[in-house]
């Protein structure tokens, strides 16, 4: 699809859901109410690790206003010895995550829940539930958790024949790294650590569940996937999927953290037991203590290069914290870390480590930022050792079409090299820097994904269009879908309405995540719209009594073509809609597909910092990100993804971290001391969208949402090196850390 | 279900009587930016909340003929910033108050609330101490004054008795050639609790410092008045040598804790850095005054 | 204590409600008055998603008791548009994609309007520091700040 011919693709249209969002009318999960609604509250573990000996709910049950109480007895069990996969999750862990079973595994772990006529009463009732614990020794930090003497969280998990906190491992190999290192002129090996960080969505998890007298459940929730909500709730409550209707409310941020359930199954059982709709809303503190952040990590990366800058051998070992149950994103760390480059010898290994903190959940390119932080930092050191500009080093070794990756695929046409070339040429790269200012660069990759998507495109009787898709909209995808539909039909954008269906009103659609929504729904919508266009041509053919092959669809109307060209006046969409019944019936079509062809996302970032060397404070002066976006169907929302990821990366690099006290309890469970960037912390975040269309997508779309979080950690770290001559090997690079390093370095001089 | 009471008296006497009658179970609601957070977290469980924002003495700003100011304890940062001359006379006190929290918090937060909440990191307190402000207090037995430096008795605790209310602050008249400034160190640019806060107030005559007061916060159980730092400045020009000695005096009095906001070592270093910077600004303002 | 009876004015209309003494204004707006446009992101005054105007002053409604609304003029996001005519800030946010998930948007708009009402010609720095109490996790603030600056210019242009 040629850029220059597009009317709507590439246009900055106004999103269809926007008016409600700017007037406060948009309905998020916590905004929903129902008559007879009661409130649910969760009792959480006061211990980081303990066996549950007994739970006595009698006192709580007799508090006036209490309508139901739930413990793990009311949730379906999945025995620890039998894997129970659902997508990338395992229900053995999910059931224990939403409510502790044999033991509590982190401070804040749900132990029971109460539904009552007010939030206050529900909370009060929770305090009356008496739980007898047998306290166990606990471990949180990675380094401690992998030691042989560490307290073991799960006796059923073994590594190398013994019970262990190492719950899994993953490996990618290509070539022979040891032989490769021998051939290298420069070899640099470094170790890195990162602290766990939270996705930081502003909207806490919330849901409202109503169970009817016939047992059918309706769930409104803040989630990245209503089909996931339905499936998990079904598995955890035993209600069959066709009796659960999961409706996605507008979602106030997710970034991966809402790709699993916390409240919905509990609220469903409370609704069953109480006979009332049950609303549950997490507090910010609950979110920080008990929902999945991403992993802290320990990594070691070794890179060998020839003196002309060719990277010949790379090795990476990545330990990631899973939290209390297995499932850290080692796939992202080990798979993406070296993926931007064409390297003959690669060995990358990930280790999934459990410890007594909340189970991690996906966070924007899960695992990849951790891997890239280490690799892109060492690349900077290689560039210096070899005497090559860091961008030129990356360009020299850039993966291109035909590069075979260590994680498996061979790349088709990709635009990574273009991001490097754009960075090299960009005016940002020429800005003169002052004292204690520095510039850093880094690149990154994320897999992206395709997966299942369903869509329905229906023509209204008055000749306009209603599109229903299946993925919650986190970043403006409805606008992009409308752009695509308007473009394909050749009609004005305003005539297209885009809605997100629920599990009852649209076909199966996989999660919003993996940078896949526009990719996958774009294919499903294109497929549906093309079927609609075919129908419209057929209807015109019936009216004109000619062969449908002799009808074309252009600019919103059917036109006779070929031998019949010019013989009939074109029939507009409105006219065909008006005559739908007489020509065969309603006009509409749908698609339910498993989409493939999603190719990875690549980006290069350039960052300038300034350091207050007396206080150790790092400020971002300017930031430009360069990304191959395939095709920017709606440029504003693509830019938005790039800018959002950068902002999260800045927070992760400089100030965000989970702080634990000596009792294994999160000490900063709120926005005051979990320090995310505020408006005054950031400069404008410039973006350069490079469009190398994805050959496997009808509009050339590549997923864009996740790769923006992959490069910033190293870009900032490299910029600080350029400013101060100090290399940091741990995150966050917060003021006390920077100041101490400055003093050590000054003392050494 | 709740037993808590809310009252909004319109006179000071009414407020004092209510507060005293509650025998320690009442809490003052000025801006509520600390109170409501503590209520929600369960940190406090008062029987009565007394809203003092309808009481004239706590909510007015008065400039007297001799140049002194009386500022109500419950006047918000936003209100104080709008006053036509307070900020020109006491830019350091105003900027200290205005640094607390966000614009939204500024719409409510007050000098009285910040002081009586008793956090050693309270932003306004080092500047109030440097200004040598006095707190006027009212109890059932009459009124009394306390220098701000004598109000705090420990983290979260004040020397007000359980039946006394803070009414307003008296700021002394400013000699010509005076300037004050407040700086704090926070990791972000806004929204953080001060890791260290430093208020400096000084008077210059012919470029020589003739008087100085230094307040230092978040480095000890209470906000400190650092006499030795002031002494290092008085009688000298404000330049590197005197500033370094004053900075050293600040570092020497630091007795902070290690917590999620800062380490002992870091806070101590920063105290010296902020002293120098705040004193420099105060001195520039004094030259212009 | 029994519930308090409060008489106030919300978005230009007289309003009455009952509330517990320790109930916040945010809880009153959302749970008693069905004005769910103001959001709870943190409940502790650190995110600004609950921003409202209290007698022409920008405040967090989670840091204010419902009882304090007695006799006051409250303005929420629901009162920003004039019927179906959006305020220029709301329109600009839509046109320039200054929102993604939209959860921070009501608070951000109320705060931005308060800025422009007080300072019709803010600099970028002034906008950023004014909005520091409104957390956004989606946008990185870039398009929000541009939208506020552009709207300010537009409003000044119309005024001339």
Describe this structure in words.
- The complex is a heterotrimer of chains A (about 750), B (about 290) and C (about 160).
- By secondary structure, chain A is an alpha+beta fold.
- Chain A has 3 domains: about 20-25 and about 450-595, Aldehyde oxidase/xanthine dehydrogenase, molybdopterin binding domain (Aldehyde Oxidoreductase, domain 4), CATH 3.30.365; about 35-135 and about 205-250 and about 260-290, Aldehyde Oxidoreductase, domain 3 (Alpha-Beta Complex); about 295-450 and about 600-749, Aldehyde Oxidoreductase, domain 4, CATH 3.30.365.10.
- In chain A, the strands form 8 sheets. Chain A has a 7-stranded mixed beta sheet, sandwiched between helices. In chain A, strands 11-19-18-17-12 form a 5-stranded mixed beta sheet, with helices on both faces.
- In chain A, helix 7 (about 225-235) crosses helix 8 (about 265-275), helix 10 packs parallel to helix 11 and helix 11 packs parallel to helix 19.
- The longest helix of chain A is centred in the last third of the chain and has 28 residues, at about 515-545.
- The mean pLDDT of chain A is about 95.
- With about 290 residues, chain B is an alpha+beta fold.
- Chain B is about 35% helix and about 25% strand.
- Chain B has 12 helices and 14 strands.
- Chain B is globular, with a radius of gyration of 19 Å.
- Chain C is of the alpha+beta class.
- Helices cover about 35% and strands about 15% of the residues of chain C.
- In chain C, helix 2 crosses helix 5 (about 140-160).
Strand order of the largest sheet of chain B: 4-5-10-6-7
CATH class of the largest domain in chain C: Alpha Beta
- Shape assignment of chain C: globular
Largest interface: A-C, 56 and 57 residues
Strand content of chain B: 15-25%
Spatial order of the strands forming the largest sheet of chain C:
2-1-5-3-4
The major pleated sheet of chain C works out as: 5 strands, mixed
Overall average pLDDT of chain B:
96
% residues in beta strands of chain C: 15-25%
Assign the CATH superfamily of the largest domain in chain C: Beta-grasp domain
